[in-house]
Design a protein that fits this description.
The chain is mainly α. About 35% of the residues lie in helices and about 10% in strands. It is globular and about 40 Å long. The mean pLDDT is about 85.
């Protein structure tokens, strides 16, 4: 996913986005906070080699992280999207990892974008 176009292709493939997906940031958020075509008890997006994520369009990484963070918040607080108050909360998590970077390097890479990050260490 080195460019926005490749990123959208991957989301379409991996999350089986519907044909009406608009391939833009608003459409990405809308589809990630719906996913009614692929219901699950939880959603976990695993991004390997994440230091290469959008490396050809680095200015877009902040937008992607913001969309992913906002989607996670929407799933955690269904009422924030206007869904019924009794709508169940569904975990939506994104795991960014890269075997070529130390934990500190990975945190430094993404911490400047202002989204909540945490490190999960191997047990």
């Amino acid at each position: 996913m080195s460019t926005e176009a490749e990123m959208h292709d991957q989301f379409v493939e991996r999350f089986e986005f519907p044909g009406y997906y608009g391939r833009n940031w608003d459409a990405l958020y809308e589809c990630l906070t719906d996913l009614s075509w692929t219901p699950a008890e939880a959603y976990i997006m695993d991004v390997a080699h994440s230091s290469r994520l959008l490396w050809r369009q680095r200015q877009s990484i902040g937008l992607l992280l913001d969309v992913l963070s906002s989607a996670g918040e929407a799933w955690a607080l269904p009422e924030s999207r206007g869904w019924p108050v009794d709508e169940r909360k569904v975990p939506f998590h994104v795991v960014l990892h890269d075997s070529e970077l130390a934990e500190k390097e990975l945190m430094n890479l993404y911490s400047s974008f202002g989204v909540p990050l945490s490190i999960l260490s191997p047990v």
